[in-house]
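User: I'm writing a tutorial on reading structure tokens. Could you give me a worked example: one chain, its sequence, then its tokens, then a sentence or two explaining what the tokens reveal?
Assistant: Sure. Here is the example chain.
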Amino acid sequence: MNTVDQTMADKLSAFFRTQPTVDKAWLFGSCARGEATPESDVDVLVRFQVNARVTLLSYASMQHKMEQLLNKRVDLVEDGRLKDFARESAEADKVLIYDSNE
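And here are its predicted structure tokens:
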């Protein structure tokens, strides 16, 4: 993780360890490319466990908790739900920050 803010990645990784519905999580966008400014939001891509039951409330709660943890706006996106125009760019610069199998 040369370009990623390691402190941010560590905080998010620790957070995801408390989220049993999350299988994997990645940073993407400016934070993953090392181009984030103090005003930048944090783009997080998550893959949920296959049989996870994720409600709108639990999804919003997860996003809110990350925003409190980082004191930054967080854009939380479920894997497979990126818009076509953003998918290629996100795939190119995403950085794995959590894997439930590790």
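What the tokens reveal: The chain is about 40% helix and 25% strand. Residues 8 and 70 are 7 Å apart (CA to CA).
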